[in-house]
Design a protein that fits this description.
Layout (H helix, E strand, L loop, with lengths): L2 H4 L3 E3 L8 H13 L5 H19 L8 E6 L3 H15 L3 E6 L8 H12 L3 E3 L7 H10 L2 E5 L11 H13 L3 E4 L21 E5 L9 H7 L1 E5 L5 H6 L13 E5 L3
Parallel strand pairs: 1-9, 2-3, 2-5, 3-4, 5-6, 6-7, 7-8
Antiparallel strand pairs: 8-9
Helix pairs in contact: 3-4, 4-5, 6-7
């Protein structure tokens, strides 16, 4: 851990409630439908926090650091694409690897790609735009790979283009920072039913996902951070979760294992 990352306040793992994937899905639904917190708002905050942890993990300065963002087709990928914008704005050299062609991405991810293209950020799709050899060479040169391939809503073994990217990242040996859960780790059980990444660090948003604290998931999540996306305690109470003010000291905190 860098000195910059260790400067963040920390909380003991037992002091923060962990949530299952169904609970988090209901929290997200309530945020949008009843509390007026839109998905773009949440994605913007998740992506900006992810970029900030990338900065801390890289020693505090992003200038000319090569960061490869591996973005899946869903909302997790969209959060990674938000991070790509913030990373580029803060001086990083950013390459985006899309798991699917733009037309096959979800709407939030497509919107973020449009912004990145307007910024002249390089976005490509393996097999369509780069060969396997070119992809692995790019990944091997990266100072950091941001894993935004799969989020908490995906169950089962990774398949298709996503599995291919996971395999390439694993072979590269590069440092990995995951968004919410390392891709391939079950968000509820921590098990790995297929290919999975072992992250050097993970930024989970709102509250930790159960699988990050269980079985293989704990080892694969690396240094664990939780980031505030602006969800109020009243919202959590609607799903039966009491949350103390986790972010009273900072909007990103480290989760420390119990001694």
């Amino acid at each position: 851990m860098t000195a910059e990352a260790s400067s963040l306040p920390s909380v003991c793992v037992g002091a923060v409630p962990a949530v299952s994937a169904p609970e988090m899905a209901e929290i997200d639904r309530l945020a949008v439908d009843e509390f007026g917190i839109s998905l773009p708002q949440m994605l913007e905050q998740a992506g900006s926090h992810l970029a900030e942890v990338a900065r801390l993990e890289l020693g505090g300065d992003l200038t000319d650091k090569l960061v490869v963002v591996a973005a899946g087709p869903g909302n997790n990928g969209a959060g990674g694409l938000v991070a790509a914008r913030h990373l580029r704005n803060r001086g990083a050299l950013v390459r985006v690897i899309l798991a699917r062609p733009v037309a096959r991405l979800g709407a939030p991810a497509r919107e973020q790609v449009a912004t990145l293209l307007a910024m002249a950020v390089s976005c490509c799709v393996p097999a369509y735009d780069v060969t396997d050899e070119e992809l692995e060479a790019m990944l091997a040169k990266a100072d950091l790979v941001v894993d935004a391939l799969l989020g908490y809503g995906v169950a089962g073994a990774p398949r298709g283009e996503v599995a291919r990217q996971i395999a390439s990242i694993r072979r590269s040996g590069s440092r990995v920072l995951s968004l919410d859960v390392p891709s391939g780790v079950d968000p509820d059980t921590g098990e790995t039913p297929g290919l999975a990444l072992a992250a050097d660090a993970t930024v989970t948003v709102a509250l930790p996902k159960l699988g990050l604290l269980l079985k293989d998931g704990r080892d694969r999540s690396g240094r664990l951070y939780v980031a505030d996306i602006g969800l109020p305690a009243e919202l959590y109470r609607r799903v039966g979760i009491d949350v103390d003010p986790v972010f009273s000291a900072a909007r990103i905190v480290r989760i420390e294992s119990e001694a």
